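Example 3.2
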Amino acid sequence: AWNVIKNDGRYANHDWTIKADPDAVLILPRLRQKLLPHTGKNVFIKNCMKWTGIGWPMMFGSLEAYTKQAMDTYFAGADRCKKDLQWQAWGEDLFMGNCLNMLGAGSEFDGSIIGDNVCKGANCADGQAGAYHPFKSAESWFQCYDQAMR
């Protein structure tokens, strides 16, 4: 998918590239506000501190946020990452985070950018998160969205 995005080129016309799972509920005004302080930097957002220690916090793949500069860094060095990292058993989110770290991009941690039941929980009525995950049925997705928008 990243090669398609690179070849299409539209990512370069925007400050951020967001990859979200289809069962994530996005609240765009909140998401924009949370990303704004990092706009223009060469960073991606780490969004989960489920554990402590090496590798934490990390970016969980339900919501991945990359600045244009981080995407440029990735596209310039992706082949190096594929060659130099032992990535074959990793998920895409772990690969992207390790690749961008290796290539010199920075990261920012925002544990409130997403309420994720896979990480530390999702409370759609918290009035804080820019996204919530996972909501697998249409009914649960819309219920979460309605709670979040109150």
